[in-house]
């Protein structure tokens, strides 16, 4: 059982470091291994494991690519705020309502990436230094996506990368750097609310966090070495897998 869980946490950490979506691996795995576990506790424990891996990836990406201090600070705050609001409402909105919306968004994202092969592939883009207008739009999107992460979650990292690439006109790798910082904040905001609600299984989550960090380091180094082209293909792969998974959940 522990070998399965730790292997899943490592895989989830790798996926989150590359493009996001590790929760699609670890949350179902927790519910399979512990069928009596309430979904809220599985989601909360996944957040505890994921925040360590995402924070590790954020440090590695920022060291390599740099980031605008203003965007990092404000993005972190807005992401945490949006996620905490979303997490506080998570029990009030059914996943059956959210799932069809996300499926449509996933298909739209896949079509867009295929139709725009040059999008997000700028080589050697500088560190992100947005002007005021770009910053305001980016922060608004960060807050909305943070809310989504708290209330539902799948694909948060992917939505962040695509949104930031479009608004800030950067390559996928530079956007991924900002996304890791913001995703750490959204995990923290949601985790804080789940902890106050008493839904976090601390020993389980911290144990899985060790494997999650290992996977994150491996995924981060691969992504930083391979560049934006690798992130683009990873985005498409996540879109396909996530769409299939959500369709099965909706109609299976």
From TrEMBL:
<keyword id="KW-0813">Transport</keyword>
<keyword id="KW-1133">Transmembrane helix</keyword>
<keyword id="KW-1003">Cell membrane</keyword>
<feature type="transmembrane region" description="Helical">
    <location>
        <begin position="71"/>
        <end position="91"/>
    </location>
</feature>
<feature type="transmembrane region" description="Helical">
    <location>
        <begin position="135"/>
        <end position="152"/>
    </location>
</feature>
<comment type="similarity">
    <text>Belongs to the 4-toluene sulfonate uptake permease (TSUP) (TC 2.A.102) family.</text>
</comment>
<keyword id="KW-0812">Transmembrane</keyword>
<feature type="transmembrane region" description="Helical">
    <location>
        <begin position="158"/>
        <end position="179"/>
    </location>
</feature>
<keyword id="KW-0472">Membrane</keyword>
<feature type="transmembrane region" description="Helical">
    <location>
        <begin position="230"/>
        <end position="248"/>
    </location>
</feature>
<dbReference type="GO" id="GO:0005886">
    <property type="term" value="C:plasma membrane"/>
</dbReference>
<feature type="transmembrane region" description="Helical">
    <location>
        <begin position="200"/>
        <end position="218"/>
    </location>
</feature>
<protein>
    <recommendedName>
        <fullName>Probable membrane transporter protein</fullName>
    </recommendedName>
</protein>
<dbReference type="Pfam" id="PF01925">
    <property type="entry name" value="TauE"/>
</dbReference>
<dbReference type="InterPro" id="IPR002781">
    <property type="entry name" value="TM_pro_TauE-like"/>
</dbReference>
<dbReference type="InterPro" id="IPR052017">
    <property type="entry name" value="TSUP"/>
</dbReference>
<feature type="transmembrane region" description="Helical">
    <location>
        <begin position="97"/>
        <end position="115"/>
    </location>
</feature>
